[in-house]
Design brief:
With 236 residues, this protein is mainly alpha-helical. Helix content is 86%, strand content 0%. It has one domain. The protein binds zinc ion.
Amino acid sequence: MPRPEPAPLAALLLASLLAAGAAALGALLGGRRHAVAGRVLGWAGASAAGMMLGVGYASLTAGLASAPLAALLGAAAGVCVVRLLDGASPDAGGDRDAAAASAFHSAAEGVAIGAAAAFDARFGLFLVVTFAVHNVSEGALLGASLTAAGRSPRAAAGLALAARTAQPALAVATLLLARAVPAALPWLLGASFGALLYLIVAELLPQGYRQAGRTGIAVVFSVAAGVVALLGGRAQ
Ligand SMILES: [Zn+2]
């Protein structure tokens, strides 16, 4: 197996910006609602959540392999930090809040992308590609809620894209941090898992259950998580 090598900063920035752009595409699709949209959106959310769990699992595994205690403590810290920040933000209600929640969520994912890219370029690329697909699903959810609140599909796509720019911004910041302080990397890999897990349980799954029922959500979520965890393990 080749030695892990961190991703170049410019490549990470470009790739994660492209992945963020996928959210606009999703928002345009989600903005065109029709009769089955509720259930389809629930499945889209469940697959997005499953991809997050798969990615988080792969990140935690990478962290555990280099420094087990730091990765585990990082995972606990990730849950606590996201819980604290989530609790401090106003409750989602209006469309501005939905976009702000999406930006907050994307920031946590940006940390995961940056930590993976600092660990190894190939693993970082795997996360960027997974999150590009994931951004289409989550962009669709945001697009549907923004257009339901009266926004035009184009405005919804613009807002979805703006909210997702937190991903490349935090990815680059995390890569720079891990370069400056290499001992922080297992913490960041662990924290990625904790943060993603919190968002899945607190945010995505409850929303999915309301839209598509528990069985459908459980099946789509598990399959997406399993496939991504398997591919993520191979990409390390
Ligand atoms: Zn997400």
